[in-house]
């Protein structure tokens, strides 16, 4: 979370003039603990996936002969682009993201602003409470919510039924939004905290000056606070875009109790299903395409907003 | 030295490391060399690795180890990610001597060259007579090889709430036609009561129903697979359940074995369960209050075709790379046909044996208190002997099952039919086999 106040830390580029820079050995010693795992557990797997995505399986000696892989050009990618399940899953989480991300970030922003007002009492309590869902692992949260959604076990559904309503949280149309609700519950507090930290770093003098000029609390919030913390809002949006594209745990858990979540519900679930069928090359190609889409969307969004947000 | 140079060098090192790692991953050149298995006993003490998913299996192995100081077996429980663990071990060339593999995954793993043919050992071929016929045809792929020994099975039967059937004066159905009629009567008598549930996310269960109707989903001849997932027999089963779903005579919102499923049974909302032998303890342990209300009767039949189906069960496979085939055969045969071992596996792991001797175990010959002291295992033993021996699984079964489930879920939600789901599964089978360069064609 060091990116929250970028301007405060990025001044270390200047060095002492003349010789006497750090010796290579020292640099390597300090960087190795980072670089070794980075190479082994990040670059190598990514490189391996990239390499796999250009391979196709061939076989000699008939059905139970020996299989091997060979260069297949863009064969795997052609299959990804022709796979309607893939585009369906992208469309599904596209819809998810367009609705869930703005709702979640708006709620997070409002909560952060409320926490920042001098009017609110018991701040520490509210801050911790709002942040607490983030401490619950995603899978556990999804299991918890799946009990609340289940028509057989849920006290919530039971209450609805007592007043004559029969909501089906796991139905074909509703289940995407039930998953979105779990994500929102999990991540709102986290995003709120990032925005709240940014609010904390605004100097009080600005507010005093604004008050002298006759600004109300409302004006201060929307005209001063929000524009100043815009970089954090952009940051949380980018995190949310990445999180949406990688959505897996919530729908995968809800799938245990609802057949309306297919094995190809999200792009990551599709990649996993394909890999579990021993088609690693196709799964690799799907993963690469997801990664490219994620990069384009997050960097595209950052570029689009960088001027306005002052990044 | 300037910082930039160091950074460049580090990047170069990183890139080089990546390349080395990639080179290490590249596949070996294709070779047609058939691994001729030999069956010579080892000199001196041997240690075998056996990976499994059965609770309490370590205790069974302890018993063996005590009796056989020269053939020691080490177990590892891989139930967390059975096929992932096996697949990775195979890729790394570190597979165990013996491993637990479900019947439906045997062709897929054989396609990945996972097994060694143990038929070089006379003890392995001689074991054939010890097992229920259909299980042997699965582990030998209908041929003369021995790639695994059967361990347990899931012969299917009908679990019925006899009290509910009695209350509404409905005879326990013996054919699927009678079952559908009973479904209607029950629903009419009490609209909140259904005869059973259809779990769209359970292809394994549905496959058992297809198996019962002698649906041949795959066959292998002329050097290629013939894919007939959407055969007439399969469609008959699909149509049948489609009608029950469309008539709202079965629930489609419950997942097999889920808390929700037990809750529905607990609330007397469902009157029967089309299940397998291993399910007898599920009901006993999860619905203790319904003790004495359940009976187990033979699965409803398709008219003149009196055969039964199987749902689940697994084998212990001879894995490629094992250097102790003789000892593996010896242990594997004991593990899966010795009455003492079978009794322990049944007691600790709930396994329903594939060995004929196992069907006569004392524990499986007694009446079961939960089921009104009925001898329910007689029903399962009878079912096991009536299972079609010609049924074969496909080499990409997992992918086909997922496609089938996704399409069945759509059908249950009113989008398409179960017959469409069979077509989707057929298409997925052909596509996934093509992706793995497995020669296949549609139709017989």
User: Domains counted in the coordinates of chain B: how many?
Assistant: 2
Overall outline of chain A: globular
Whole-angstrom Rg of chain B: 24 Å
Category from helices, strands and their pairing of chain A: mainly alpha
H/E order of the elements of chain A?
A: HHEEHHHHHHHHHHHH
Helicity range of chain A: 55-70%
CATH topology of the largest domain in chain B: D-Maltodextrin-Binding Protein, domain 2
Structurally, the number of domains of chain A stands at: 1
| Assembly classification | heterodimer
Task: Say how many strands of chain A there are.
Answer: 2
Largest sheet: spatial strand order of chain A = 1-2
**How much β-strand is present in the residues of chain A?**
under 5%
By DSSP, the count of extended strands of chain B is 10
Helical proportion of chain B?
40-55%
* Main beta-sheet strand count, sense and barrel state of chain B: 7 strands, mixed
What descriptive keywords fit this protein?
heterodimer; A: 311 residues; mainly alpha; MetI-like fold; two-stranded antiparallel ribbon; 14 helices; 69% helix; globular; disordered N terminus; B: 444 residues; alpha/beta; D-Maltodextrin-Binding Protein, domain 2; 7-stranded mixed beta sheet; 3-stranded mixed beta sheet; 10 strands; 43% helix; 14% strand; cell membrane (chain A); transport (chain A)
């Amino acid at each position: 979370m060091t990116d929250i106040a970028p301007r405060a830390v990025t001044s270390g580029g200047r060095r002492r003039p003349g010789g006497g820079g750090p010796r290579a050995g020292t640099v390597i010693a300090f960087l190795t603990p980072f670089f070794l795992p980075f190479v082994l557990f990040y670059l190598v797997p990514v490189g391996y996936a990239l390499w796999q995505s250009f391979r196709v399986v061939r076989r000699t000696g008939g059905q139970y002969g020996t299989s091997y892989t060979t260069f297949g050009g863009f064969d795997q990618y052609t299959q990804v682009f022709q796979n309607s399940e893939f585009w369906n899953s992208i469309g599904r989480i596209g819809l998810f993201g367009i609705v869930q991300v703005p709702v979640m970030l708006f709620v997070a922003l409002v909560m952060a602003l409320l926490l920042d007002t001098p009017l609110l009492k018991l701040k520490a309590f509210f801050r911790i409470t709002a942040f607490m869902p983030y401490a619950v692992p995603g899978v556990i949260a999804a299991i918890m919510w799946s009990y609340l959604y289940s028509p057989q076990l849920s006290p919530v559904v039971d209450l609805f039924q007592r007043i004559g309503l029969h909501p089906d949280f796991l139905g074909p149309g509703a289940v995407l939004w039930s998953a979105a609700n779990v994500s929102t519950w999990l991540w709102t507090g986290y995003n709120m905290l990032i925005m709240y930290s940014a609010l904390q770093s605004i100097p009080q003098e600005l507010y005093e000056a604004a008050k002298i000029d006759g600004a109300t609390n409302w004006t201060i919030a929307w005209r001063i606070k929000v524009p100043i913390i815009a970089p954090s809002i952009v940051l949380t949006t980018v995190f949310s875009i990445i999180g949406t594209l990688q959505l897996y745990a919530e729908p995968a858990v809800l799938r245990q109790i609802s057949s309306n979540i297919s094995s190809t519900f999200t792009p990551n679930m599709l990649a996993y299903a394909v890999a579990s069928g021993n088609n690693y090359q196709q799964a690799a190609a799907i993963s690469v395409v997801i990664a490219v889409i994620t990069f384009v969307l997050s960097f595209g969004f950052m570029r689009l907003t960088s001027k306005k947000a002052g990044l | 030295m300037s910082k930039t140079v160091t950074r460049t060098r580090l990047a170069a090192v990183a890139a080089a490391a990546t390349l080395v790692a990639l080179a290490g991953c590249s596949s070996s050149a294709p070779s047609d060399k058939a691994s001729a298995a030999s069956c010579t006993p080892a000199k001196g003490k041997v240690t075998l690795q056996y990976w499994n998913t059965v609770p309490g299996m370590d205790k069974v192995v302890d018993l063996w180890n005590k009796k056989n100081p020269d053939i020691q077996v080490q177990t590892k429980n891989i139930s967390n990610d059975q096929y992932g663990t096996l697949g990775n071990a195979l890729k790394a060339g570190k597979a165990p001597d013996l491993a637990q593999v479900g019947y439906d995954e045997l062709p897929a793993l054989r396609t990945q060259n996972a097994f060694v043919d143990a038929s070089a050992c006379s003890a392995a071929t001689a074991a054939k007579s010890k097992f229920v016929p259909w299980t042997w045809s699965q582990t030998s792929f209908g041929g003369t090889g021995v790639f695994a020994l059967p361990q347990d099975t899931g012969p299917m039967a009908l679990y019925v709430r006899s009290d509910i059937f009695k209350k509404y004066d409905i005879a326990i159905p013996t054919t699927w036609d009678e079952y559908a009629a009973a479904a209607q009567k029950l629903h009419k008598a009490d609209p909140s009561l259904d005869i059973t549930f259809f779990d769209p996310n359970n292809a394994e269960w549905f496959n058992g129903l297809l198996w019962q109707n002698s649906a041949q989903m795959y066959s292998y001849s002329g050097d290629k697979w013939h894919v007939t997932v959407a055969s007439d027999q399969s469609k008959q089963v699909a149509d049948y359940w489609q009608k029950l779903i469309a008539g709202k005579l079965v629930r489609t919102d419950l997942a097999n074995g889920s808390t929700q499923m037990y809750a529905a049974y607990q609330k007397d909302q469902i009157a029967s369960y089309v299940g397998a032998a291993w399910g007898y303890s599920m009901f006993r342990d999860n619905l203790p209050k319904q003790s004495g209300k359940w009976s187990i009767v033979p699965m409803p039949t398709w008219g003149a075709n009196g055969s039964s189906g199987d749902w689940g069960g697994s084998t212990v496979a001879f894995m490629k790379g094992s250097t102790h085939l003789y000892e593996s055969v010896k242990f594997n045969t004991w593990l899966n046909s010795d009455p003492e071992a079978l009794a322990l596996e049944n007691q600790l792991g709930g396994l329903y044996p594939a060995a004929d001797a196992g069907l006569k175990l004392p524990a499986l010959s007694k009446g079961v208190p939960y089921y009104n002291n009925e001898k329910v295992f007689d029903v399962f033993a009878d079912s096991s002997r009536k299972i079609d021996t010609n049924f074969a699984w496909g080499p990409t079964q997992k992918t086909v099952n997922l496609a089938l489930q996704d399409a069945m879920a759509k059908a249950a939600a009113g989008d398409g039919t179960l017959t469409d789901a069979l077509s989707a599964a057929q298409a997925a089978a052909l596509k996934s086999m093509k992706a793995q360069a497995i020669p296949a064609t549609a139709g017989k």
